[in-house]
Amino acid sequence: MKLAKSSQFPPCPGPVVTIVLDGVGISPREDGDAVKTARTPTLDKLMTTYPMTPLRAHGTAVGMPSDEDMGNSEVGHNAFGAGRVFAQGAKLVAESIASGHLWQGKAWHDVVATAKQGGCLHFLGLFSDGNVHSHIDHLRAMLEQAKQEGVSKVRLHILLDGRDVGETSALDYVDPFEEYLTQLRSEQFDVAIASGGGRMTITMDRYEADWSMVERGWDIHVRGLGRQFASAHEAITTYRTELNVIDQDLPGFVIAKDGQAIGKIVDGDAVVFFNFRGDRAIEISRAFIEEQFTPFARGPLPNVTYAGMMQYDGDTQLPPRFLVEPPTIDRTLGEYLAKNGVSQYAISETQKYGHVTYFWNGNRSGKFDETLETYVEIPSDVVPFEQRPWMKCAEITDALIGAIRSGQYRYLRVNYANGDMVGHTGNFEAAVTAMQGLDIQLARLIPVILAAQGTAIITADHGNADEMFELDKKGAVKRDAEGRTKAKTSHTLNPVPFVLVSANPSYQLRTNLTTPGLSNVAATVLNLLGFEAPDDYDASLIQPL
Ligand SMILES: O=C(O)[C@H](O)COP(=O)(O)O
Ligand SMILES: [Mn+2]
Ligand SMILES: [Mn+2]
């Protein structure tokens, strides 16, 4: 994996720093755009003074099945880190179902065999068609196949979305699905929704930011402990009248009959966690798998056949049983740099820590070289982020400035969570504040990079804060009869900025790339560090002056 020295690009005399402004896209409209509304004098100046190009960050440009699919942190950071586009989980699972490959694998066989020996088959996962962590069509296909293969009892544990899809769309999924289940149900096939709750309240924590979410999920899905309702519809409508919260924040619920939970997970059952994306699947998978488990008082571990939709962590091989092979993301930027003796520093706050490490390195949680790499996690607040829209951007900047000034690192990368995490709350004012907080940090950071004779790449993994209101089919902001807008909590399809900030550049942006995207950044970084990029990496964004 030796990299050739570039004949065209002298190495940048100072550090090269990739700054990912998570969830900061470029919207074609003003209305509802928190990025444009915010007062961001530093970012505005950088974008007009230095070479800048928009990058594609959604759809096929990041390995999603179609250009209707928005980008997300996993596919975005995979593309940054791999310098190439790989078919991603959403696409691989859909293909595996379409070809029937999934049903031929050992994991599916194990799951079905367990259920046919008298166990119940449980499906647990994110219940929407967001296609970021999961897709409801995959669930449908598995239900139909299980029925066809003679499984007799199935229970569903549904995590309500409201984050990758409309903020109050849960019933748009639940109601038709109940009808579908009525069609599917028969004397021989007992299928029902058994538990659920909002995805930001139970089960889908990531990067160990808040294990109590997983504990609440465990109690609800496995132990059947929680507030009881007769149906998911009743749970959702009841909570909505009692609490002023959107779907992702709805509390957990247990479906019960005569006071008894109808779908506890017990010895001899099989469990499929049907999310394909790993960050929010790892903790609950660990709870189902690890014999010695300390993050919370789990109680007795039921002896179940557990399968993930994919393997979520290639380094720890978690979970060992999985339905679809993950993309084989190899020879990443991080690995090349490590094998060529280049020191690296990666930093973010908890909520995005794995984005610049695990996702960046092709969904591997470990390092390539302990001595050359430093990974820093600033603990995130555990609060609704609309209450702290500045999040930890100042603390991250403090640490990053220290790392740059230390002179120890040639390549640094940082993810600032604000545009995305606050964008997901749907709170426009908070998203504007988030952007302004971020701008203050750029004003501190960029001069330090330039003083060190370095180069900064300012970019983003996908849009979010750039569209805070739902749009109609024509792409205009949707308004009701009173002119009110509806909050949009999901990512956008917009491109993201690529700004190249350097004191004395000996290069300029290439003009012959028709639709550059996130996967073009890795080769650019290698060139800035004075290396040729590997032949199969997507083209660099720069050329010599
Ligand atoms: O997991 C989440 O928070 C959302 O589904 C996607 O956001 P991310 O891709 O920016 O993490
Ligand atoms: Mn993101
Ligand atoms: Mn996001």
Automatic annotation (TrEMBL):
* Pathway(s) where this gene product acts: Carbohydrate degradation; glycolysis; pyruvate from D-glyceraldehyde 3-phosphate: step 3/5
Which lineage is the organism of this entry classified under, starting from the top rank?
A: Bacteria, Pseudomonadati, Pseudomonadota, Gammaproteobacteria, Methylococcales
Its EC number is: 5.4.2.12
A GO BP term here is: glucose catabolic process
The name on file for this protein is 2,3-bisphosphoglycerate-independent phosphoglycerate mutase
Domain (Metalloenzyme): residue spans on this chain: 15-532
Return the Gene3D superfamilies for the record.
Alkaline Phosphatase, subunit A, BPG-independent phosphoglycerate mutase, domain B
Quick check: keyword Nuclease in the entry? no
**Which cofactors does this protein require?**
Mn(2+)
Origin species, per record, is Methylocucumis oryzae
Similarity annotation: Belongs to the BPG-independent phosphoglycerate mutase family.
